[in-house]
Amino acid sequence: MQVHLISALNGNFLVNVSMDYFSQVLVYSKIQYTLHQVCHSDYVTQEWINYLANSPGSYGEFYDAFRVSGTFLFQALSTLCVLVDQTISNRLIEFYSTQYVSASVTPSNIFQLQTKAFISQFISSTTSEFLLSFAMIRKTTQSNALLSGQFTNYRFYVDKNDDLYTRSLRHGDCICSSLATCINQYAVINYPSYTKIFLIPGLYTGCYIIESLLQSNLQCFYDQICIDTILLYLGSTTLINATALDTSLSIQFLANSTIADVLDQLMVEEWNSSSIYENYYSECQPSRCSYTVTSKNSVIYIVTTLIGLVGGLITVMKLMVPMLVKVARKRIYKEVKTGTEYYPNVLVFYQQSYGNCSCYSSATCSSASPIYDLVKGTLLFTVPGLYTGCYIIKSLLQSNLQCFYDQTCINKLQSYFVVSSVMNVTALDKSLSTHFLQNSTIGDVLNQLMVEEWNSSSIYENYYSECQPSRCSYTVATKNSVIYIVTTLIGLVGGLITVLKFVVPYLITLIRGKKKFQRVETVMSTNERAQTLRQKPKHFFLNLNLFPSLPPTTNEYQLRNQRISTRLFIALLIMSLAILLLYTSLINITQTVNVKAPSIQEYTQLYNSYSQALTCECTQISINYEKFIQIQYTLHEVCYSDYVTQEWIDYLATSYGNSVPNSEDFRVTSTFIFQAMSAFCTLVNQTISNSLTQFYSSQYVSASVTPSNVFQLQTKAFISQFISSTRNEFLLSLVMIRNITQSNALFSGILTNYNSESANGVFVREPVWYGNCVCSSSATCITQSAIYDLVKGTLLFTVPGLYTGCYTIESLLQSNLQCFYNQTCINKLQSYFQASSVMNVTALDVSLSIQFLANSTVTDILDQLMVEEWNSSSIYENYYSECQPSRCSYTVTSKNDAIYIVTTLIGLVGGLITVLKLMVPYVIEFIMFSIKTCKGKPARIMPLVQA
Q1: Nearest CA-CA partner of 196 in 237, 236, 235, 233
Q2: CB of 182 closer than 8 Å to CB of 172
């Protein structure tokens, strides 16, 4: 059947039209992966990172590139391993919950091709999305000229006026201000003599740790001698077991493959995927398969149809032929004709202000971009449309390109450049702009993805060509064909005429005989009357003759044969009709019942009665989720409080007046803490909103109406998947930014991760310790947030639940908001502020919390996307209304109805009677002749032979 009927086979009655790629019971598409062996090695462990961070000379003024920044290199490598693994894991969860939709069973060969394409697409999209997010962070970091805490891209200097300035570093012929990818080979100098230098093969240092790591390779760490040399030169008193990587375990990566090359493959050595067709088929659960074949009518159908037609045709012909003959005879002598008939077939130390805006409280402060005299410092020119501010990216977004549409402005700019030769640059052409204006800000342009015009087209012919339909089918409501009507009528007419011809004469005779009997009726006793009534039927049946000869015969032998023929005829007719009656009455038939445009109430009733056989085809097979799913959410109350407003942040920025507190003082860190909190609220809300927009535009595909119970389970799963995937994507992005920030050792402008001291006009840095934790090896070092005396520096108050640490974000994540649920604590805090007026802020209300506690850390809150409560609903009625089933059909097994049985028997009676009337007399005559012949044969006399 698979070979010959594959184009006709259609398993289109499915229990599951759509199913997940992954099921708790059955897995029919499974993906496994093996990361680069470095991700499972000693070189990404905290033990190795701490070993490098604590090696002698790593915190002093001695600049041994590897000794100083090697710890960050391996933190970065560890980060990449973790991020890649988490990214793939999150994407797999989404992939496994994706619906595979097939209205009919997909053949095995097509299924294997499809799943192979799905898996290839999954790997490609996961890789692209990860690398895009990673590149965005790298480019933003370079564009904002963020300072590395290792002073590998910029260094601080103090001029003769004690003003602080920075100067970009060079690595060879490359300068970090113009390119983030400048590198030098890593070197380690032996300790404690500092006499020998060992250049580490394959490892590089540069402007940013991440950028230099990407250009490095791990060839040294495949060589035990190279590793031992590094350990020897570091001269640490602590012993560590560092084993070389094994080249034999590498499948696609080489020892000299750069980290960029490895990352381009998501650090995956090998993907192992499988798709199990049997599991797919089991989940699909086809209720039945149908196929079409070209065949002849069955013998039974042919025989019964012919019998019905023969009787009808003979009867009709017997009526019509005599009349036609008479007409022909009347005209035969009038006209004789002869004829022939044919039959055709950002980051800073001190508070910077732009106008009335302080970078301390807002990152969006900006002012017009100027050009100053390099000697006198006087303003020479203000660049139209361009702004400078706290961060380069932020100010760029507020800028526009109007100067660069004006050649005069460009020439004016270049006239202030101190260069050996002027570069020939041409102004932008405003006539080429179709969507953006000259004064459109970069923010506005970026909101449109910098796209002037989208041009799209969809070619139906190409789709149809790829689709290659093997056949099309459709259903139409029609009347019976003329041939069917004619043949049925002929059969019925013949049967009716035959039956009536047989019955009517006897009825007339019976009626007339009764009337005659009434006229000549004599007085009879009851016994005589009863005996007469018994004798009459007997006499009737004994003398019944349906085959009289013409003219009537008196020959007893012939009369006897005729009566026997009559009795055999009646017996065969009754037996045939009885068999046909039993067959048509007892045979099971499958009937398809169609209900046009059923209401939801009618559908529910039908489903309750015929759930296994009911099929209701949707007019609209794909429906947006927004039509029947609604998701609402309530964020943590802090997101609606005073503590995330700009007014509160500005208030905190003025809390210590003109004094300079300890960098760990709450009054210094608080403004950044609440900026971060506000950012979390905004980002979470925007993330959920964006995800909801995508979710609502997702298509729910169902070729037929999905039952209410299945629909509720599916929508519940969709909503759960939406929440899970949104949370995972947000947290993964946050982890990526946090880890890359630490890996690049970015300098905190409030000196919470590095202290900087001036030595002979040059600044050197030293990582900050919090207890036994140092910021060079871990970003999560923290200490309790406190308020100190601005003069003596003594501890005045410890803020409950709040911490300060290497980075504001890291310390905030480990903090909780218990102080801000307590009005006394808030008032106590404000009592130490040197603001001109006290801001009226109200404590958070613990009674409004549904799932979070007062001492829940910000990490715990963020793990739930800061959502107190999700409210979701799925409305089945809306789905049904969008589906708009044009009809529902179901099959039932039943017997033939009485009308069908009667009409069938009538149609067959005529044919049976005709056939039997033709055959029975000849059969009886042959039998009687044979018997007579046997009886009348003379006996032969054989003589006895005596011995």
Answers
A1: 233
A2: yes
Helices (H) and strands (E) in the chain, counts: 24, 29
Q: pLDDT tens, 27-45?
A: 567 899 999 999 999 999 9
Binned at pLDDT 50, 70 and 90, residue 722 comes out as very high
- Using DSSP's 3-state secondary structure scheme, residue 616 falls into strand
Averaged pLDDT score across all residues of the chain? 83
User: How many whole angstroms separate alpha carbon 660 and alpha carbon 790?
Assistant: 7
CA distance 423 to 418: 12
Beta carbons within 8 Å of 765's beta carbon, 6+ residues apart:
149, 150, 151, 747, 754, 755, 756, 757
Instruction: Report CA-CA distances (Å) from 667 to 113, 537, 650, 775.
Output: 62, 125, 12, 21
The reply to whether 102 falls in a domain is yes
Tell whether 410 is covered by a domain. Answer: yes
Query: Do 101 and 698 contact (CB within 8 A), yes or no?
Result: no
Measured CA to CA, the distance from residue 922 to residue 543 in angstroms comes to 20
The Cα–Cα gap between 52 and 615 comes to 69
Beta carbons of 130 and 138 less than 8 angstroms apart:
no
At 590, is the secondary structure helix, strand, or coil?
strand
Q: d(Cα 614, Cα 592) in Å, to the nearest integer?
A: 10
Over residues 404-440, the pLDDT tens digits come to 999 999 898 988 888 778 888 898 988 888 888 988 9
- How many domains are there within the chain? 3
Domain boundary among 263, 291, 319: 291
Assign 517 a pLDDT band (cuts: 50, 70, 90): low
Cα-flanking dihedrals φ and ψ of residue 537, to 5°? -60, -40
- The pLDDT assigned to 19 comes to 52
Show the beta-strand stretches assigned E in 577-628: 589-596, 615-618, 622-624
Q: What is the pLDDT of residue 312?
A: 66
Q: What's the token pair of residue 729?
A: 């994507």
pLDDT value at 278 more than 60: yes
Strands (E), 565-657: 589-596, 615-618, 622-624, 629-635
Report the distance separating Cα 180 and Cα 171, nearest Å. Answer: 10
Q: Are residues 265 and 408 in the same domain?
A: no
Residues 36 and 140 in one domain: yes
Q: Is 632 helix (H, G, I), strand (E, B) or coil?
A: strand
d(CA 203, CA 186): 6
In sequence order, what E strands does 879-944 have? 885-894
Name the token pair of 214. 């990407």
Tell me how far apart the 2 most distant CA atoms of the chain are, in Å: 172
Q: Looking at the predicted structure, is the pLDDT value of residue 338 above 50?
A: no
In a domain, 552, yes or no: yes
Handedness of CA 768, 41, 267, 89 (dihedral sign): negative
Instruction: Give which of 263, 226, 225, 270 is closest to 249, Cα–Cα.
Output: 270
Q: Please tell me whether residues 267 and 395 are part of one structural domain.
A: no
Domain that holds residue 196: 1-291
Residue 164 lies in a domain: yes
Q: Is 889 exposed, middle or buried (0-12, 13-18, 19+ CB in 10 A)?
A: middle
Q: Do 121 and 35 lie in a common domain? A: yes
Per-residue burial over 153-179, b if 16 or more Cβ lie within 10 Å, else e, is: bbbbeeeeeeeeeeeebebeebebbee
The tens digit of pLDDT for each residue in 567-616 reads: 888 888 888 888 888 887 888 877 788 899 999 999 999 999 888 888 89
Q: Are residues 427 and 494 in the same domain?
A: no
